[in-house]
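Hi support team,

I'm opening this ticket because the web form for multi-chain structure prediction keeps timing out on my end. I have pasted the exact lines I submitted so you can reproduce it. The total is 363 residues across two entries, so I didn't expect it to be a heavy job. Is there a limit I'm missing, or should I split the entries? Thanks in advance, R.K.
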Amino acid sequence: MRRKRIPSARAQPIGALCLLAVLLAAAPFHAARAVSNPAEMLPDRAQELRAEAIGQELRCLVCQNESIEESDADLARDLRAEIRKRVAAGESDKEVIAWMVARYGDFVRLKPPFRMATLFLWFSPAVALAVGGIVVWFGLRRRPAPPQPLSAAEEARLKRLLREGLGNPRS
Amino acid sequence: MAWLGSSLGRRLLLTLPVAAAAAGGAAFLALLERMKHGTYDPHAVPSPLIGKPVPNFTLPAQPPATAGISSADLVAAKRWVLVNFFASWCVPCQIEHPVLTELAAAGLPIWGIAYKDTVDAAKRFLTERGNPYTRLARDETGRVGIDFGVYGVPETFLIDPHGIIRWRWAGALSDDVVRDQLFPLLRGGSGA
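Hello R.K., no limit was hit. The queue was backed up. Here is the completed structure from your submission:
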């Protein structure tokens, strides 16, 4: 009787990679749904989506690395409610964000504004790339020139060595 | 890049990174030292309210006080006032309590705002530990706290005689913070 074929072990890493790809692809959608309590949400779907988008751009100051839309902190819940109140009252996204910045400063914006104090922040990737580029460029320039092609005599010697083996080079 | 080959160039190439690393290390040590003394908080968020008038608010009284606090009261006080957001449930508030008591004994008016606390718990806190506050109000929802940019308790604001916010400290006040930051402001601003 023939044995049932067992999937080869080699298939497993591929399966794991597929799973990882699926999880990575799903991650942003997962993060977008953070308000778990439906009672917090605005009845108007469009307004609720706007409030969520605003909240995702604002930092929770208690945890500092989550948006107030994602955070479980008490203050984040209060701020979510306040943002929804303002959105429902007809304030624009800009007005709501300005209201937060007036109280907590630019630090609450997860996308920092472009101004003098944040110039370095915005340009540091370009600076890092430029410095890296300069280092690589000089590194390549300083590399010694490739050796000259072998002369006919050297070629012959190489062939002899390969044929006879490297036994004792002095003999 | 001939200079790279020279001995001076090589020495520079060797010492520059070492010097940069040493400078970074020294700066880091200085930060750690300041953190140890409580004069630097890596999580601190600079307040955009410094130099601005106190936000408008009216808050009800927190017993044992019988009258609440409003922004108009702060302006009408016409003197330096420390506004302190505290809560009975907050551990750093208990840590800074002796510092507030000392400041009150030195004659600085401290107005307390019980933040997200119950009337009874805040009252018990003051009965058990002593009451350094000249006036007391309560912000049960934390809504006035948001207007002050409060993101945790304790938080302390120094209000000048014109009702302008001059200084904010997020976290427990320590003797070092009072000596190095608060006192220079009071001396420079009012001669108090």
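A quick check on our side: Residues 18 and 42 of chain B are 26 Å apart (CA to CA). Let us know if the file doesn't open in your viewer.
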